[in-house]
Amino acid sequence: MQKLYIIKIGGNIVDDESALSSFLQSFANIQGHKILVHGGGKLATRLAEAMGVQQQMVDGRRITDAETLKIVTMVYVGHINKNIVAQLQQLKCNAVGICGADGNAILAHKRKKTGDSGEAVDFGFVGDVDAVNAIFFKQLLEQHVTPVIAPITHNGSGQLLNTNADTIAQETATALSAFYDTTLIYSFEKSGVLLDTNDENSVIPEIRPGYFRELKTKELIFAGMIPKLDNAFSAINKGVTKVIIGNANHLEQLIQGSSGTTILNE
After folding, report:
1. Per-residue pLDDT at 265
2. pTM score, two decimals?
3. Angle formed by the axes of helices 134-142 and 165-176, to 10°?
4. Contact assessment for residue 78 and residue 85, using Cβ atoms and an 8 Å cutoff
5. For residue 89, is pLDDT > 90?
6. Residue 25 CA to its chain's centroid (Å)
7. How many angstroms separate the CA atoms of 65 and 68, rounded?
């Protein structure tokens, strides 16, 4: 099977013009098939505040009301996505920017109204993925086109939905693992999964399911990392060959397996 790299770039890198430029140079240098999934960074929040649209968070998740949906769509699918595509074109990487509605790429449903504590919560226009159109992505890849995915999906009935970029990366990697030897890389500003969030040298080189349960039970990992690791283990359990979490500035080393945290089955 041909290799495929699906790389999710974190929001803090997207926010940093210099860091993003360096990352995209490394991404463009990857040979063969690749897909980039990006988050929205803090630009959507800043724009919402400037426009007087109050932002609400529950359990670290954004409540996406109708006005916020307009803003995140403009920022994610418009400004951020097209700027990334333009930079990749400059680097001779033929990219196409899409969201879940384009080519019926990613179908989702509106999230059920339950928070982490089991209480009723209306997340608004937030989507959870139902299906990824693997054939659509395969056709693009076979034409030597690199998809750049913005984290907006649709429900098939004309409604756009704001969807977690980590989950989009995982679901896309899982769907395409039927056709490719797929590696999923979560890249952001940290060196990997850290035992001490203030110590970049405390990277955990490998995490297996049992150790992950131990880390959660003993509260040894930052709470915000748990959903990313849940997505990582879900991908591994559904056919993705390898999942790596690490620093976006070390993309080549992450691909080589000499940096970051590697997620493994038992």
Report:
1. 81
2. 0.94
3. 80
4. no
5. yes
6. 19
7. 5
Structure tokens at 7: 């790389």
Q: For the domain 3-263, what is the CATH superfamily, name and number?
A: Acetylglutamate kinase-like (3.40.1160.10)
Residue position matching structure tokens 């724009």 = 47
Closest CA to 42 of 66, 10, 70: 10
Name the DSSP class of 260: S
Query: Residue 83: which H helix or E strand, with range?
Result: helix 81-90
Place of tokens 């769907």: 175
In the structure, what pLDDT confidence band is assigned to residue 38 with cuts at 50, 70 and 90?
A: very high
More confident residue, 197 or 254: 254
Residue 16: CB atoms within 10 A of its CB come to 15
Q: Domain residues of the chain, as ranges? A: 3-263
Task: For residue 159, give the 3-state DSSP assignment.
Answer: coil
pLDDT tens per residue, range 212-254? 999 988 888 877 788 889 999 999 999 999 999 999 999 999 9
